[in-house]
């Protein structure tokens, strides 16, 4: 079983704890910390980056850096879920474009649970930039 908790501190600020026990500040107004929906987008970037690194390592691709960023649009009415997400994968090193494409596709379609959850409400697209 996975667990999480949010403890109110003041205004719309909370200290949230996840399954691993680490505390993350959350601010519903995004004034002093990331908002809950910011964290969802960050979780997507982290989840898919993890997959890509893992897959490229298994393929013995000589990457030296991996960065995943996201731009998103929310629905105009409540619930303001993410409706469209554009991911940018920046990979540095002498890696095969096909290996990176395969890693991103596998992450999106099979391994990244955050991506799979978000794809139920959002159109997710991606672009890859290689820098050798």
State the strand order across the main sheet: 1-2-3
N-to-C terminal Cα separation, in Å? 42 Å
Instruction: Estimate the strand proportion.
Output: 35-45%
For CATH, the homologous superfamily of the largest domain is named as K homology (KH) domain
Count of DSSP helices? 3
- The ordered H/E elements are EEEHEEHHE
Which class do the helix and strand fractions yield?
A: alpha+beta
Overall number of domains: 2
Write the CATH fold name of the largest domain.
Answer: GMP Synthetase, Chain A, domain 3
CATH architecture of the largest domain: 2-Layer Sandwich
Approximately how much helix is present in the residues? 25-40%
Cα gyration radius (Å): 17 Å
For the report, how would you describe the main beta sheet?
A: 3 strands, antiparallel
Global morphology = globular
In total, how many beta strands? 6
State the name of the first-level CATH class of the largest domain.
Answer: Alpha Beta
Concise synopsis of the structure shown:
The chain contains three helices and six strands. The chain has 132 residues and is α+β, with helices and mostly antiparallel strands.
Please tell me about this protein's structure:
There is one protein chain. The chain has helices spanning 36-58, 97-111, 113-118, and strands spanning 5-10, 13-17, 23-27, 63-74, 82-93, 123-131. The chain is of the alpha+beta class and 132 residues long. The protein has two domains: 1-34, N-terminal domain of TfIIb, CATH 2.20.25; 36-131, 2-Layer Sandwich (GMP Synthetase, Chain A, domain 3). The protein has a three-stranded antiparallel beta sheet with strand order 1-2-3, with no helix packed on it. The chain has a three-stranded mixed beta sheet with strand order 4-5-6, covered by helices on one side. α1 packs across α2 (97-111).
């Amino acid at each position: 079983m996975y667990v999480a908790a949010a403890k109110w501190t003041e205004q719309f600020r909370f200290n949230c704890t996840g399954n691993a026990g680490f505390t993350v500040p959350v601010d519903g107004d995004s004034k002093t910390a990331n908002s809950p929906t910011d964290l969802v987008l960050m979780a997507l970037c982290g989840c898919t980056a993890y997959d890509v690194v893992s897959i490229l390592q298994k393929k013995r691709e000589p990457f030296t850096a991996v960065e995943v960023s996201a731009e998103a649009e929310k629905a105009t009415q409540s619930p303001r879920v993410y409706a469209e997400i554009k991911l940018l994968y920046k990979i540095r090193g002498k890696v095969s474009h096909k290996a990176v494409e395969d890693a991103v596709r596998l992450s999106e379609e099979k391994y990244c649970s955050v991506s799979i959850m978000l794809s139920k409400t959002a159109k997710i697209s991606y672009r890859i930039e290689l820098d050798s």
